[in-house]
Amino acid sequence: MINLLKGMGKAYKDYQKTKKLDKAARDKLPPGYGGPARDPEVIKLDKQLKIAKNVGIGVAGTIAGAGVYGKAKRAFKDKEKN
Known about the structure:
The protein has 82 residues and is mainly α. It has 2 domains: 1-36; 39-82. The chain has 2 helices and no strands. The N and C termini lie far apart (68 Å).
């Protein structure tokens, strides 16, 4: 049973390695032969999407940080009053 599992793990690793090599080879092909699209508009949209994602992450972090800061400030103010 253990030998069967070892064999399956090795086969899975080999499959992943082959898949990665195929993707790398496909990325080097020109767009007409199955390679990635290098249209300037697509590149521009991908860049804008990446920026929008980063801005969204930053906004969420800022809102959460402001909430924590406000709670801490209020707690310290209440502590000083008592």
